[in-house]
Amino acid sequence: MLHISNQIQTNILNLRNQIIPSLTPQVKKILIIAGTAFSFLAALYLIRKHFSASKPQEELIKESPNQRHTPTQHTPEDPDLQKPQPPPVTPTDSPTMPIQDNGDTDLAQNEADTKRAQEEADAKKAQEEADTKKAQERAAEDRKAQKIVNILLVGRTGSGKSTLMKVLQDTFNVTPSSSNSRSTREPELSEFKLGEYQLRILDTPGLCEHVPTSSGQIARSNDEIAALIDDHVHMIFGGYEYLDSAVFACSVPSGVLIDDVYSIKEMLSRISPPTKKLFMVTYAESLPKKELQKIREQLVSHKDLAIQKNFGGTDNFLFSGSLTPDDLLFEDNAKGKLTTIANMKEAVIEALIGDRMTEQEKADGKKARIADFKSNTHCFLDDNIIRDDMFDMLSDDMLSDDDESID
């Protein structure tokens, strides 16, 4: 080290001897001071470098007062031997920070919450449906025990709903001519006894309403009429699910119109099992049996009505009729019409309440209605047949006492 320092000084002296003679005294003085300072700094640098190279590797690593580590063992061939190694971090030395992945975590949590909410909603809906079904079953059992039958009459305007309801109450009902008929504007509830059974029939205004200009009324929209029917069904029966039967009417004189198809489809969407659905062709009292069979076949094959699908087949396909003022012009005509109307009525009664009755109840009920029909027919004809002074149209060939059918 002293040898190196002496050499530096010798070099500086030689340089000084060559340059200084040509310099002024002031410059010489500055150079002497600068050279001395440079020599001092160079000596310090060399001394530091010497001691740094000889100091052991482990002494170069300063340990933190709060850190402890075990020096990494290296083989002599390890090229990283001379490189400072960072101290290992243990769990106690550095606390573990939580992983920040909020996006995926929030998404998974939202999906789980949505799934749980949907499951809860589904479970609640299933429970409500089960409770509703039980309530309907209890109500049906109560009606059955009390022999109450809830019936809804629907169809387009002028399809004969009101006439059907009146005939069920009275076989001898006389329907006014079409020019004098009054369409139902508001739902009307009729309750009456049929044997031991209490029939509750709601007659409804027809959809596809047509109002004569002379009436001064305004035709209502189908939505208005349907809403009116809905309100009364819920108010009177508690809802469509508490109906025992729904009767869909269309008439023979007009045939099946687009309005009929629309009305039937609109109301069918509201009716569900176990409510029985009946398809009724009204004003059929004047047609012979062959003609009625032909009409039945045509309507059953009508693709828009879909009788088989919507009404369960021909067993629920029925006819009804009613007397008109013209039928009272001739007694024979009136008698024949009354017999046809009574037989049609029997089929309707069987469809409405037949499944409620035992075979004995059916037989007893039919026998009572036959007796009532026979006892009242003479009186009705006497009171209502329009007579000619020269020709007595009254006949005594009504049903015999031992006849077991109205035919």
Description:
The chain is α/β, with parallel strands linked by helices and 407 residues long. The chain has a domain of 237 residues: P-loop containing nucleotide triphosphate hydrolases (Rossmann fold), CATH 3.40.50.300. A six-stranded mixed β-sheet has the order 2-3-1-4-5-6. A hairpin with a 2-residue loop joins strand 2 and strand 3. It is rod-shaped, with a radius of gyration of 54 Å. About 8% of the residues have low confidence.
Strand tally: 6
Q: What is the general shape?
A: rod-shaped
Q: Determine and state the CATH class of the domain at 148-384.
A: Alpha Beta
Largest pleated sheet:
6 strands, mixed
CATH superfamily of the domain at 148-384: P-loop containing nucleotide triphosphate hydrolases
What is the average of the pLDDT values? 79
CATH topology heading of the domain at 148-384: Rossmann fold
| Number of contiguous helices | 10
Structural class: alpha/beta
Radius of gyration: 54 Å
CATH architecture of the domain at 148-384: 3-Layer(aba) Sandwich
Helical proportion?
40-55%
- State the distance separating the first and last CA atoms: 148 Å
Strand order, main sheet: write it out. 2-3-1-4-5-6
The SSE string, one letter per element, is HHHEHEEHEHEHHEHH
Segments where pLDDT lies below 50 for 5+ residues?
57-72, 388-404
